Predict the structure.
Amino acid sequence: MERDKRNQRLKKIASISVFILLIVLLALISNVTDKNFEYIVDESKLQIIYFDVGQADSTLIMNNGKTILIDGGNDSDGDNLVKYIKSQKISKIDTVIATHLHADHIGGLDDIIDNFDIGTIYMPDTINTDKQVEEFLDAMERKNLSYEVPVIGEKFKNGLADCEVMSIDNDTKDLNNSSIVIQMNYLEQSYLFMGDSEKK
């Protein structure tokens, strides 16, 4: 009799344990499936997101409700960039920086311009006849936007982060070294975004 009661208690404990384990497993599974565009950032912190665009470049910086997008990867990256940025409940990109006019840096920026309100666009005053450059300029024209050519030492803010242009060279024959280089300071940290600038 006592053994039967003990067995019933053990079965009950085992059933409860299995039930709890199933709940935990379901919670874990729900957290790891299809999370490509579900990470929501904390606006009170500086957020820097480096997109995987192969050998290309694209970086989203957010702080205190303000956003910077540095470069837009390749032409084929545009759709994914748009999906991710929209998933962050972002409707306006305050500053777009096209560091230089190579296709792997400005290829997706036409999609960005088409899908978001845009504040300031910075880019070097250089020329490149690539198709992606034409699409970028056409997207600006469709929305009646123009770009600014910054100068070394020019400063601007992104939320509470301070940004300064450290380098730019409007040399059409050397696009990499014409890259806009931005230093950003936030609290005790300093960040350098260099485009394709080389040792020079």
Remarks:
- The chain has five helices and nine strands.
- Strands lie at 47-50, 59-63, 66-70, 92-97, 117-122, 155-158, 161-167, 181-186, 189-193.
- Confidence is low (pLDDT under 50) at residues 29-35.
- The chain has two domains: 1-33, 47-193.
